[in-house]
Design goal:
heterodimer, A: 20 residues, mainly alpha, B: 188 residues, alpha+beta, 23% strand, globular
Chain lengths: 20, 188
């Protein structure tokens, strides 16, 4: 399916540490 | 906070390309595929590992395109299309370029143009001494409704004032004229 992400949602991930 | 499972960029996987001008080599030999991303998490990992746009040398380009479309007019998915072009003044490299390029990337990976997002092929950043440029490339220059929708949303997302006019040029027109002379097919 098609996913639309708003900019605030995307920006929330910017400085999250990569977690495995 | 966002959850822990990766957030897919469905339906698109995106490829980042880097162009470094070396006049001793053919244009295509200077174009390098850096990486492909298909999750929000991968996108930020990539973004954190590459130079900011404002730190690139003049003559360099970044391009983020849907997987399977090469960042050149000749690609079959681009050749009937065109671009919304943002031309920046020299001094905007330090004040605006990074913000505008990131916003452009977020518009792409967020599929911000609703059903018209499928018309988007990618985006190109040109870092140039005479003034940097950012463009969103779309697939079909004759798709007036799609092109205008994308242009209006894009202009709003960049935070450009209503007095600022941005133009859309068909690649077929740009290819036969110098950039400054290619006529605008649409403006918003």
């Amino acid at each position: 399916g098609k996913k639309q992400y708003d900019r605030e949602f995307l920006l929330d991930f910017q400085f999250m540490p990569a977690c495995i | 906070p966002p959850g822990h499972s990766p957030h897919s960029l469905t339906p698109s996987r995106w490829a980042l390309w880097f162009f470094k001008n070396d006049r001793s080599r053919a244009w295509q030999d200077n174009l390098h595929l850096v990486t492909k991303v298909d999750t929000v998490e991968d996108f930020w990992a990539m973004y954190g590992h590459i130079q900011l746009a404002s730190k690139l040398s003049s003559g360099c380009d970044y391009a983020l395109f849907k997987d399977g479309i090469e960042p050149m007019w000749e690609d079959s998915k681009n050749k009937r299309g065109g671009r919304w072009l943002i031309s920046l003044a020299k001094q905007q490299r330090h004040s605006e370029l990074d913000r505008l390029w990131l916003e452009t990337l977020l518009c792409l990976i967020g599929e911000s143009f609703a059903e018209h997002s499928r018309e988007v092929c990618g985006a190109v950043l040109n870092v140039r001494t005479k003034g940097d440029k950012i463009a969103v490339w779309t697939r079909e220059a004759e798709n007036q409704a799609g092109v205008l929708h994308i242009g209006r949303i894009y202009k709003e997302r960049l935070g450009l004032s209503t007095k600022t006019i941005i133009g859309y040029q068909a690649h077929a027109d740009t290819a036969t004229k110098s950039n400054s002379l290619a006529k605008n097919k649409f403006v918003v």
